[in-house]
Specification:
The chain is α+β, with helices and mostly antiparallel strands. Helix content is 39%, strand content 20%. It contains 18 helices and 20 strands. A hairpin with a 4-residue loop joins strand 2 and strand 3. It is globular. The N and C termini lie far apart (51 Å).
């Protein structure tokens, strides 16, 4: 039993990744999943725990096959997941109801809270670092108002990564980094703040024990062993939120260190002392880190990776065929073409995710502005590059907001996740931010962080911080092109002005928002 497994439940997919104890990735198996709108419930994003558990088990089995290993070879495992997604259970530990991360059904509940509990969002944000935009309180209130029988049966709450671990070992618990994103949590105490729920008329006795990341929970049960192929000798260890464990997997474990995680969503995170108060404007969220004395200031860019998937599937059939013929990844092929496009993409301005405005968060309608009818300059390659540039620009705006209230100077950024596999995208991040960009050898940093947690739980590593310093190996470094930065600084200003104009079209009911927080 010389291997560690990480189960990574992201927004767009779930994967099982096997590592050796030196942090080398041995195999990975991935399944895409979708979170469907519940019939008759606008803006909902349900999480199908029965179907998705089967996908988790398939990934585990396929990862064994790819590595030529068996369940007996896995010493320990842990899980990480999209934050904000919640699972509710009955008193017997059976799942009752679950939603994925950007479920936005509870708009009426958010308005009710703001109108009937004046200043309560600001009060809760000051303690938890979270607003109601992605928090659990409005969603649980929605369940109470609309599915009363289910609500009455609710006895426990957990996050989606916790749900995977509960399925495997039978123990329902959470950790600060993931549980903290419910907004029913104290940044300083790193524990539930059940009095928040009680204050708004919700159950305050449904909160399970909080375990720090790397805490041993138990072993794989007989039932889970039969379903997944794991051994009952494999130990199950508390994991955490995908961004925070991803940060650990990047070696971002000390105050002032910075990372951008480029996945389905992009997150920009800066490590701060846990006693640093959240900003008064409430535009940035603050989360507990997986390191006990740290929190993280975080900006979020919506759908950056999912927008790329959409663009690939909607417009790049030719490149898909070419990539298949050449035996290469379609994104790598698109990058080759996009590299021939000059910085600035001929002025094309994508309108997808706004910069983070956590206190009043909604997006414009998805669109491209400033297109040309000249096919030599306005084509798939230039539009593809413009999307890469835009993700980097919105990230830079979010980092600017974090710098304003932390006074942290940013010179180096660690970049990871699927987007960091792109050489062009990595260089664009450096050029836009004006910072040195470091790429780890293991780009699946979130999974590596979860594997570190598993190793801590069985004594392979002393703690998460020391494991990170031992295991993270750097692959590439990109230095910024400051001439390109001048171009991007101008585009950043134009983008912000253009986005405000596009939001006005939403306000005037001319276009439809890509996403809006509940209650707006």
């Amino acid at each position: 039993m010389n291997y560690l497994m990480a189960i990574d439940a992201g927004t767009g997919s779930v994967r099982a990744v096997i590592f050796d104890t030196l942090g080398n990735q041995i195999s990975v198996a991935q399944k895409e999943w979708t979170h469907l709108e519940e019939e008759g419930v606008p803006n909902s994003m349900s999480f199908d725990f029965e179907k998705n558990w089967l996908l988790v088990c398939e990934c585990i089995k396929e990862s064994f096959k790819a590595a030529n290993l068996s369940g007996e070879d896995i010493a320990a495992l842990s899980a990480t997941s999209m934050r904000e997604g919640i699972v509710l259970y009955d008193r017997d530990g059976n799942e009752l109801w679950a939603v994925a991360n950007v479920d936005a059904r509870a708009d009426k509940e958010v308005r009710f809270l703001k109108e009937n509990f004046k200043g309560i969002e600001e009060e809760f944000y000051a303690e938890s670092g979270q607003t109601f935009a992605l928090g659990a309180i409005p969603r649980i209130m929605w369940l109470k108002n609309n599915r009363a029988e289910l609500y009455e049966r609710v006895a426990k709450i957990s996050m989606i990564g916790d749900w995977i671990l509960a399925r495997l070992c039978g123990v329902i618990a959470t950790d600060p980094s993931n549980g903290g994103t419910t907004g029913i949590f104290s940044l300083k105490k790193r524990d539930w703040a059940g009095e928040m729920a009680a204050k708004v008329g919700l159950k305050d006795d449904i909160f399970p024990k909080v375990l720090e990341v790397g805490t041993l929970m138990g072993g794989v049960t007989d039932k889970a062993s039969k379903e997944s192929g794991l051994s009952t000798n494999t130990k199950v260890v508390m994991g955490g939120g995908d961004v925070q464990l991803g940060s650990a997997g990047l070696g971002v474990v000390e105050v002032g260190q910075v990372a951008i995680l480029g996945g389905s969503f992009w997150q920009q995170v800066v490590n701060i002392d846990k006693n640093t108060p959240p900003p008064l404007d409430m535009n940035i969220r603050v989360n507990p880190h997986v390191i006990p004395n740290l929190s993280q200031a975080e900006g979020i860019t919506f759908f950056s990776g999912l927008v790329m998937r959409w663009f690939r599937d909607a417009f790049c059939d030719m490149e898909k065929l070419q990539a298949k013929e050449q035996g290469v990844d379609v994104y790598a092929l698109m990058e080759e073409k996009a590299a021939q496009v000059p910085a600035g993409s001929y002025g094309i301005l994508p309108i997808f995710s706004d910069s983070m405005k956590y206190s009043k968060w909604y997006h414009a309608a998805p669109s491209f502005l400033n297109l040309s009818i000249n096919p030599e300059i306005c084509n798939r390659a230039s539009m593809f590059r413009s999307l890469q540039e835009n993700a980097a620009i919105v990230s830079a705006i979010n980092l600017d907001k974090i710098k304003e209230f932390t006074d942290i100077k940013i010179e180096t950024i660690v970049f990871a996740g699927g987007a960091s596999k792109g050489k062009l995208w990595s260089q664009i991040v450096a050029d836009v931010t004006g910072c040195r960009v470091k790429i780890p050898r293991v780009t699946e940093a979130t999974a590596l962080g979860a594997a570190m947690a598993a190793g801590v739980g069985v004594g392979i590593y002393r703690d998460i911080a020391s494991a990170a310093k031992e295991l993270v190996v750097w692959d590439k470094t990109y230095e910024p092109n400051m001439e390109n930065k001048k171009i991007y600084d101008e585009i950043k200003i134009k983008f912000q002005s253009a986005y405000e104009a596009q939001l006005k079209l939403v306000d005037d009911n001319i276009t439809a928002s890509m996403w809006r927080a509940p209650g707006l």
